[in-house]
Design brief:
Elements (H helix, E strand, L loop, with lengths): L1 H5 L1 H14 L10 E5 L6 H13 L3 E5 L12 E6 L6 H12 L4 E5 L2 H9 L4 E3 L10 H11 L9 H19 L4 H9 L3 E7 L3 H14 L5 E5 L6 H6 L3 H4 L2 E8 L4 H16 L4 E6 L4 H23 L7 H11 L12
Parallel strand pairs: 1-2, 1-3, 3-4, 4-5, 6-7, 6-8, 8-9
Helix pairs in contact: 2-6, 2-7, 3-6, 3-9, 7-13, 8-13, 9-13
The structure holds 5-phosphoarabinonic acid.
């Protein structure tokens, strides 16, 4: 898993090149899209959306279920992403999109999705096989960035190259035995990591939590400000001394956070200090949104590995997911369709 984490920048670049090279023409008049996927294959859509929302006129709606929004039809691009190519929810949504007449693209390392795409004449973006889906994020996200590149005012190629170089340079320090993620893991210890960010970095906070869940095999939680000040705050406020011992808040601070947001984090930090909940802030200072997003992903991936190491668990297997798929998906093997009314 460490090697794959190290390969993240290289994956981003090759994924981007493959996405750009895909034989696919953006259909005229399409100004919205859904990107369907689950788990490790879904997070790339959130990260893409954070960028397209800020920099393009295109709507990118991530979807994590087999049903599609009612507005998906011939003028919506539907991209189905499944690393294995065999995830039931994604295959069902791919089928619904086809029945609705939406132009489609499939992304996988093979599997049924590739077969269906081939049979139905849908462009298919191949990502390298043999990894865990969450370890293929560079290829999946890079592929999406390549595919959606025409929607941006200027190509993201140079920007991504620059960001990849920065990631590569940071890998030794971040992955090192005395690196900042290892030190933070030692502070978190047995407490539940509560990852808190701005809306901009919310997909990153989500990735940190899911990486901790899958790699370190322990619960984690994420939320974003300012929204959480309008609900979660009440529970923090009511926290007893004893309950406070269970949590460790990690704040992701980005250069994109404005003063209003900083004031709100400050307010929350003071309240947490009053309740004796430890808070650590990790800063991402890059002025480029893409670079700081990717740097924050890389940091969190190393933190999840450090927590796995600290807990003495193997980050690689996710047997519970395999068992769930085996149990629930065998009935759907020949039927990747759902009622779509
Ligand atoms: O991390 C994982 O292994 C999961 O979250 C998978 O990504 C998820 O089950 C979907 O599978 P796939 O990515 O193969 O579509």
């Amino acid at each position: 898993m460490r090697e794959w984490t190290r390969a993240f920048p290289a994956q981003l670049r090759s994924g981007f090149a493959a996405g750009r090279a895909l034989e696919f023409r953006w259909p005229r008049g399409v100004d919205r899209s859904v990107v369907v996927g689950m788990g490790g294959s879904a997070i790339g859509a959130d990260l893409l959306r954070s960028l397209t929302d800020a920099e393009t006129d295109l709507l990118v709606q991530p979807v994590r279920e087999p049903t599609l929004p009612r507005w998906v039809g011939p003028s919506t691009l539907a991209v189905a992403v499944s690393y294995s190519g065999d995830t039931w929810e994604t295959l069902a949504a791919f089928d619904v999109a086809g029945r609705r007449g939406a132009p489609r693209v499939a992304v996988s390392s093979g599997g049924r999705l590739q077969q269906l795409a081939r049979a139905e004449g849908v462009p298919h973006l191949m990502v390298p096989p043999g990894l865990q889906p969450r370890a293929a994020l560079g290829s999946l996200l890079g592929g999406l960035l390549g595919l959606f590149d025409p929607a941006f005012p200027a190509s993201n190629r140079d920007r991504l190259d620059r960001a990849s170089k920065v990631l590569l340079m940071g890998a030794d320090e971040l992955g090192g035995a005395a690196g900042p993620p290892t030190r933070l893991a030692a502070r978190i210890r047995g407490r539940l990591p509560w990852i808190c960010s701005s809306e901009e970095l919310a997909p990153v906070a989500r990735r940190w939590a899911t990486q901790i869940e899958e790699n370190a095999k322990r619960l984690a939680h994420w939320d974003a400000l300012p929204e959480s000040l309008h609900n979660v705050l009440v529970a923090w406020d009511a926290l007893t001394r004893r309950e406070a011992e269970r949590y460790f808040v990690v704040r992701l601070q980005g250069a994109g956070d404005d003063q209003a947001l900083r004031d709100r984090f400050e307010y929350l930090s003071k309240l947490l200090a009053g309740r004796k909940v430890p808070v650590a802030t990790v800063r991402f200072e890059a002025s480029d949104r893409l670079e700081r997003t990717l740097s924050a992903i890389q940091w969190g991936d190393y933190l999840s590995l450090a927590l796995a190491e600290l807990g003495g668990v193997d980050p690689f297997p996710v047997e519970a997911i395999q068992r769930m798929k085996h149990r629930l998906e065998k009935d759907h093997k020949s039927r990747n369709t759902i009622d779509d009314r």
